[in-house]
């Protein structure tokens, strides 16, 4: 019989669950509900919310034009500027920024005020990173790769504070910290990587190592799911990235004796359950 193991850490993390619950709670109250950006990187959930009347605000300009309703900030958080617009337009704010991200905002703001230059290790395009940069009073650098870290060059007397995007890989963070440390700056390093990510990644690695095939469930645009896929693929050649059960070739799976399943932080439980059940048949 085939062994199918579902990772305990698969699916919504605490911050995403809190944000999604906040949207469903607001829908019940009957006000016009808007989210600033998609509440999570998952097409299925976004579709459901759209059907329930939740509207998406996709840019600062659109937000500036909004004069009434409830606006929900997602778990990734936003820059200070966005809070000002919401306040000035008298919108009802529901702040679902993950408390771990809020802590980064507070840290970088304090450290910038203390005169430190902030280095954010993460992806420039990621909304969480863009939100964090908005608390650094234009005194920051985002470093994504070791190459960029090697090229980082500010006067040696610059005081630096290094933080991380919550969802990046710990080894990448360490590598970049090491490169910057060797340059001789006065540095404070605050590891702001979220444990939920680390736990999910460690469990995925272990599970992939022990499985003949590995299934990673999540939206194609979710960076944390992509990372789970990369980690799993490095350990298990037969790793499949799927969005829902429809993408899974169940016949192909039959040839494997052991199958591991994990899912990104924005994958709803019902999708995970469906895949898990189908794999057990
Ligand atoms: Fe928060 Fe960590 Fe999730 S930072 S949104 S609990 S991945």
Automatic annotation (TrEMBL):
EC numbers, comma separated: 1.17.7.4
Binding site for dimethylallyl diphosphate: 41, 76, 126, 222-224, 266
Alphabetical UniProt keywords: 4Fe-4S, Iron, Iron-sulfur, Isoprene biosynthesis, Metal-binding, Oxidoreductase
Enzyme class (EC, first level): oxidoreductase
Keyword flag Methyltransferase: no
Single GO biological process annotation from the record: isopentenyl diphosphate biosynthetic process, methylerythritol 4-phosphate pathway
GO molecular function: 4 iron, 4 sulfur cluster binding; 4-hydroxy-3-methylbut-2-enyl diphosphate reductase activity; metal ion binding
Repeat recorded as keyword: no
UniProt binding sites for isopentenyl diphosphate: 41, 76, 126, 222-224, 266
Reactions that this protein is recorded to catalyse: dimethylallyl diphosphate + 2 oxidized [2Fe-2S]-[ferredoxin] + H2O = (2E)-4-hydroxy-3-methylbut-2-enyl diphosphate + 2 reduced [2Fe-2S]-[ferredoxin] + 2 H(+); isopentenyl diphosphate + 2 oxidized [2Fe-2S]-[ferredoxin] + H2O = (2E)-4-hydroxy-3-methylbut-2-enyl diphosphate + 2 reduced [2Fe-2S]-[ferredoxin] + 2 H(+)
This protein's pathway: Isoprenoid biosynthesis; dimethylallyl diphosphate biosynthesis; dimethylallyl diphosphate from (2E)-4-hydroxy-3-methylbutenyl diphosphate: step 1/1; Isoprenoid biosynthesis; isopentenyl diphosphate biosynthesis via DXP pathway; isopentenyl diphosphate from 1-deoxy-D-xylulose 5-phosphate: step 6/6
Binding positions for (2E)-4-hydroxy-3-methylbut-2-enyl diphosphate per the UniProt entry: 41, 76, 126, 166, 222-224, 266
Cofactor note: Binds 1 [4Fe-4S] cluster per subunit.
Residues that, per the record, bind [4Fe-4S] cluster: 13, 98, 194
Essential cofactor(s): [4Fe-4S] cluster
Active site: 128
InterPro entries: LytB/IspH
HAMAP family the UniProt entry points to: IspH
Family recorded in the similarity comment: Belongs to the IspH family.
Function (record text): Catalyzes the conversion of 1-hydroxy-2-methyl-2-(E)-butenyl 4-diphosphate (HMBPP) into a mixture of isopentenyl diphosphate (IPP) and dimethylallyl diphosphate (DMAPP). Acts in the terminal step of the DOXP/MEP pathway for isoprenoid precursor biosynthesis.
Name of the featured protein: 4-hydroxy-3-methylbut-2-enyl diphosphate reductase
Organism annotation: Anaerocolumna xylanovorans DSM 12503
């Amino acid at each position: 019989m085939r062994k199918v193991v579902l990772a305990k850490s698969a699916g919504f993390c605490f911050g995403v669950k809190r944000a999604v619950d906040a949207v469903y709670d607001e829908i019940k109250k009957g006000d016009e509900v808007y989210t600033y950006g998609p509440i999570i990187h998952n097409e299925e959930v976004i579709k459901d919310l759209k059907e329930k009347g939740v509207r998406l605000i996709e840019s600062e300009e659109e937000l500036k034009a909004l004069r009434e309703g409830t606006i929900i900030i997602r778990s990734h958080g936003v820059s200070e500027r966005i809070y000002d617009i919401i306040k000035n337009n008298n919108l009802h704010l529901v702040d679902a920024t993950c408390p771990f991200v809020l802590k980064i905002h507070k840290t970088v703001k304090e450290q910038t005020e203390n005169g430190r230059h902030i280095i954010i290790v993460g992806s420039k395009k990621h909304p969480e990173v863009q939100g964090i940069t908005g608390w650094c009073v234009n005194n920051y650098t985002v470093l994504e790769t070791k190459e960029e870290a090697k090229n980082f060059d500010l006067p040696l007397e610059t005081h630096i504070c290094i933080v991380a995007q919550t969802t990046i890989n710990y080894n990448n963070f360490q590598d970049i910290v090491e490169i910057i440390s060797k340059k001789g700056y006065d540095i404070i390093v605050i590891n702001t990587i979220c444990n939920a990510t680390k736990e999910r990644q460690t469990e995925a690695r272990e599970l992939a190592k022990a499985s003949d095939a590995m299934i990673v469930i999540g939206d194609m645009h979710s960076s944390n799911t992509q990372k789970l896929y990369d980690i799993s693929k490095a350990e298990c050649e037969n790793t499949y990235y799927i969005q829902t059960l429809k993408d899974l070739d169940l016949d192909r799976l039959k040839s494997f004796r052991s199958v591991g399943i994990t899912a990104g932080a924005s994958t709803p439980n019902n999708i995970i359950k469906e895949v898990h059940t189908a794999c057990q048949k």
